[in-house]
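Summary for the funding panel

The consortium committed to producing paired sequence-structure records for every protein in the target list. Below we show the first two records in order, beginning with the earlier of the two.
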Amino acid sequence: MRASRFYRMSKFRGVGAVAAVLVLVACGSEVSPPAPTSTSPSPTSPSPTSPTSGSARVISGRLVPAGDVGAMTRVRVTLRSGARDFSGLANSDGTFQFNADIPIATADSVDLIVDVDDGPRPFAPIHKRIASDDSASYRRPLLISSNVHIPSGTYAGSTVAITLDGAFAPICPDAASLSCRGFFDYWTDVPLLWPTEAFPIPLAFFRREGAPDITPEDSAIFWANVASLEGELARDLFRPVDIGALGAVTPSGVPERGVAVSIDAAASPALGGPAANNGRLVLARVRANNNVWLRQRAVMNHELIHVLGFGHTCAWDSLMCGVSLAKTSATRGDVAAFLLAYLIDDAVRTQAPTTTVRDYHF
């Protein structure tokens, strides 16, 4: 059936895998984390001078910022070999170069450390152990901002501190439970998101066999709730389409593309999550236990944030900290983390950094 602008929809837990597509995020626990996918383009910045064993080598590269990381001239890049440090400060354009008298032996390792030279940290410091002959890892370190400015929407003008340890932190200790996974914790080495060109994502209602109809009133309330989330994130997230625009939809409500929303008595109170192909989110399903939960703003907008590719968090005041009907809106922290995710994604896909979102010392 068609989801008109009056008929928007959402979900509250997970989605199953389809063919070769990898299932990702859930508020329940019916999905599996994806296999690692490398999406970084081939290196474009100059490579360092090739060293001779036992000689000083020139360590050079360029910092890759994701967001506002402050003055580049405060950033020190260090290679640590045992008790010896070899380091240099970056230039204003993010380039750096220094000599390191480190013997080359594949059995040896060194620590790559990228941090501020002094004062407060405006980015997450890097600490990565690499092979002593691994020149690739230090060429383009990825600096991820610790403070995110929200330029528009409900929280326009706010600057919010978001740390990677908070964004990746699980909300409960059960490592086997997908519901415990953190806000960014479904990522591998790179963000796993809908491409920016996918917005607004097509969404339609799907009627399961034996399930009640989604009424025009249900739809009007659902789309009003979606509009509130779009105002908070300052992005047109979803657009109504006919169910046929999503391709073949399985009896369990999984589409070929876009987002399918349905009523399913097995979802309690709701389930939602996306699936990925080739490192990008491409489809999702949302299931509400009944029409009442479909109308519930806290539940549906929580599930739609799962659809966008994010897990749970209690690291900041968040709509994604479990299920609470008392909180109905995405918070400043949720919006800042959403924006940070796309800043990281843009840096990864356009500047080919040689460290990842997992190479941070918290």
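The next record, for a separate protein in the list, is shown here:
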Amino acid sequence: MTFQSPEVECQQWYDKQFDRYDQDKGGMNALIEKSSGNLIGHCGLLVQNVDNRVELEIGYSLLPAFWNTGFASEAAVKCRDVAFDREYSSSLISIISLTNTPSARVAEKNGMAIEKQTVYYDNVVNIFRITIDHWKSITASSIKTETVAPKDLE
């Protein structure tokens, strides 16, 4: 594999994202840190073909300085909620390398569980999945009601 300059590889990556949008296959969105305004990574909904099945994936990638900060989990949850709120799919997946334990933890925090292992672009990966029914059950149980104490009777 021949590597090109970071500028060329970056341009190719963005060209791929714009092509995905043009083909209605979703794409990655920039993640910007609010406090600094700096780009910290990408996250988005991607149409993928896994084992001859069209799937909607939550994909994410952060710069190493922002690993283990909760940003990936926050972005993945937002993608999940948007996808299910808008009924884009009845289930969502994340495709994660067997050795990528931090990304697996993000998927688990997002309510996903390993469904299977498969080969995806010549790599053995875990397919994590969450269904809309499971999402409804975990989001309903996380809604907290506020109780207000009655005023003292006079």
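Regarding this second record: The two ends are 81 Å apart (CA to CA). The first helix runs from residue 6 to 22.
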